[in-house]
Design goal:
By secondary structure, this protein is mainly alpha-helical. It contains 12 helices and 7 strands. The protein has a 3-stranded antiparallel beta sheet, with no helix packed on it. A two-stranded antiparallel ribbon has the order 1-2. Helix 3 runs antiparallel to helix 4. Belongs to the G-protein coupled receptor 1 family.
Length: 368
């Protein structure tokens, strides 16, 4: 039996598909091609997310001037991506590519990897939402004081606590299932969440809750935030005389918002296929289980989903030499900064006079 046949017979009887009609999807060139693709994606995640985000975290730890509100929120995204790159990806690479769907690391690590990966993905979602809300408040309500550090730490705690609790079923339902090798030469072990058939209603309710809480609601909230921000930056005139400094600052803000909107679009494009496939698999299983390439499709979709961490890293993080500060202070080496750090002006508050905004530029100087 193949892994798909075994799971269909022993775990997913609610699919109502005869075992003999479920094709062996673990053989053939399509499966081999999907294995190569996921290998490349996992290696890229380990290199880009692991190295890039570690550099960003190290920069925040070393330079206090980088620890503004937005960068602290981005740090959550960086930490969650590092956890996946450093802890989960090596095990997944061994499981998917080296061992060809065979888990040899025990039930505890199987549950821990599933749990940590799920927590990290939801932390990334919540961090993107927090960044969108932060930009919304800073741009649309510049007269209001920025959040205190205690409030920021509470927000960061909430970003992590919610995923920690809602991801518990991913660890509790994780299991190891041994099945024969298709050629009958050796045994293999499947590691995944497996819900009993008699708990199908609970699983579907849980999935719909996650779908609403960690996809529909955050995407809707981020879309609303960036729609209002875009209207403020592109379709409203700044009162009074606009100096060259004000125009440049507005351009920087617009570039930052464009990056954030692209991050949101990438998030939707990466995660929508995953949720769509899962909805079909769990609510209309016969549409998928009869397809010979269903497992290959899942491989490709999983690659697309996991690649979102790489996109976030490349979008938020860039490496550049701050030559102006090198000349001024002589103590700032080439360092890692973020696109959003370029709009550091919002960190200490903004004020609006009767005609112009009083702001702080990147180098800390004020202008009217």
């Amino acid at each position: 039996k193949s892994v798909h046949n075994y799971l269909a017979q022993n775990c997913f009887l609610d699919y109502e598909v005869p075992v003999e009609e479920i094709p062996d999807t673990t053989q053939g060139p399509a499966f081999f091609g999907a294995t190569i693709i996921i290998a490349v994606v996992l290696v890229v995640i380990m290199l880009v997310c692991g190295v890039g985000n570690c550099l960003f975290i190290a920069s925040l730890a070393r330079y206090k001037q980088l620890r503004n509100l937005t960068n602290l929120l981005i740090a959550n995204l960086a930490v969650s991506d590092v956890l996946v790159a450093a802890v989960c990806c090596p095990f997944l690479l061994d499981y998917y590519v080296v061992k060809q769907l065979s888990w040899d690391h025990g039930l505890l690590l199987c549950a821990a990897t599933n749990y940590l990966r799920t927590v990290s993905l939801y932390v990334s979602t919540n961090s993107l939402l927090a960044i969108a809300v932060d930009r919304y408040m800073a741009i649309l309500y510049p007269l209001r004081p920025r959040m205190k550090h205690q409030t920021v730490y509470c927000m960061i705690l909430a970003v992590w606590i919610v995923p920690v609790f809602i991801s518990i079923p991913s660890a509790y339902m994780a299991s190891e299932t041994t099945y024969p090798h298709p050629e009958g030469h050796s045994q293999k072990t499947f590691c995944a969440q497996i819900w009993p058939v008699d708990q199908q209603l609970y699983y579907r309710s849980y999935f719909l809750l996650i779908f609403a809480l960690e996809f529909v609601a955050p995407v809707s909230a981020m879309a609303v935030c960036y729609a209002h921000i875009s209207r403020e930056l592109w379709f409203k005139d700044v009162p009074g005389f606009q100096t060259e400094q004000i125009r440049k600052r507005l351009q920087r803000r617009r570039r930052t918002v464009v990056v954030l909107i692209l991050v949101l679009v990438a998030y939707v494009l990466c995660w929508a296929p995953y949720y769509s496939f899962t909805l079909l698999r769990d609510f209309y299983p016969t549409l998928i289980s009869r397809d010979r390439n269903s497992l290959v499709a899942f491989y490709i979709i999983e690659c697309i989903t996991m690649s979102n961490g790489v996109i976030n890293t490349l979008s938020f993080v860039s490496i550049r030499s701050n030559t102006r500060r090198l000349k001024k202070a002589g103590k700032f080496p080439p360092r890692l900064v973020t696109f959003v750090a370029a709009t550091k002006s919002a960190d200490k508050g903004e004020a609006r006079t009767s005609s112009l905004r009083v702001t702080e530029d990147v180098d800390g100087t004020h202008f009217r």
